[in-house]
Amino acid sequence: MTRPVIGMCTALEQARWSVWEQPAMLLARNYVDAVQRAGALVLMLPPDTHLVEDPDQVLDLIDGLVLTGGADIDPAFYGQQAHAETVGTVSERDAFEIALVRAAIERDLPVLGICRGMQLINVARGGTLLQHLPEHFGHGEHRRAIGSFDGADHDVRLLEGTLAARAAGECKHATKSHHHQGIDRLGEGLVVSGRSTLDELPEAIEWEGGPSDRRFVLGVQWHPEADAASSVIGALVQAAMAEPAGHVQARESAS
């Protein structure tokens, strides 16, 4: 059987490999491994200014979209000035991914946002972010060790019957987190379906109408790709396998 194609957005960062140090479009291997384990093929999607105006050109090629983690989103995209702790923003990536996710939701393409990706779904729908959680909650438990998931586990409470709970396979879910920002004002059409047991911070959002309106629109603040036992990415792949016939025809025509 032909595997579904999952588009995964890449970071745009300065990177070093072999004898080189250059700007690079990159994606951590654990994202790719998780999608391949779930039975799908990965298509890496680097920022592309042409696709900001015409995202359908690439959406025709994929069956599902994953917005990965990475740099803070430029607060200009949600009408705020940058906090002192909001650093390393990449506006080129932000504009590209906002265009992609808006068009993907419009055409009912399955979408999963991971960490930054959840925040980006919210911003794309007109929501805002808390730019530095420690000043709001008085602790740094959401990002305990910078650059590592060691000791990063904490529980989230997912609402029964939601897409988040079905994707995770349970309502109390152990997660691996690495973030210092989070949801503030919720974007249009979204609902909170999970919260941290640490402080009630929203840690899962999804489409308000559920699968009766959109098949799969889910954002999780944690990193399921860092947990080989997680079923969240597999749930996205399963949704992508159930693509509408019209999308199959569009992709075949594009090829």
Structure description:
- The protein is of the alpha/beta class.
- It has one domain: Rossmann fold, CATH 3.40.50.
- The chain is 29% helix and 25% strand.
- It contains 9 helices and 13 strands.
- Strands 4-1-5-6-13-12-11-8-9 form a 9-stranded mixed β-sheet, sandwiched between helices. It has a two-stranded antiparallel ribbon with strand order 2-3. Strands 7-10 form a two-stranded antiparallel ribbon.
- Helix 4 (91-106) crosses helix 5.
- Residues 245-249 have low confidence and may be disordered.
Key structural traits:
255 residues, alpha/beta, 9-stranded mixed sheet, two-stranded antiparallel sheet, 25% strand, globular
In terms of DSSP E residues, the strand content is: 25-35%
> How are the strands of the largest sheet arranged?
4-1-5-6-13-12-11-8-9
Gross geometry: globular
Low-confidence stretches: 245-249
Please give the number of β-strands.
13
Q: Please, what is the average pLDDT?
A: 91
Main beta-sheet strand count, sense and barrel state: 9 strands, mixed
Order of helices and strands: EEEHEHHEHEHEHEHEEEEEHH
Annotated CATH homologous superfamily = Class I glutamine amidotransferase (GATase) domain
- Total domain modules: 1
Radius of gyration: 17 Å
Distance between the termini: 18 Å
Kindly state the percentage of residues in helix.
25-40%
What is the CATH third-level topology name?
Answer: Rossmann fold
Question: What structural class do you assign from the helix and strand content?
Answer: alpha/beta
CATH architecture verdict = 3-Layer(aba) Sandwich
Q: How many helices in DSSP terms?
A: 9
What is the level 1 CATH name?
A: Alpha Beta
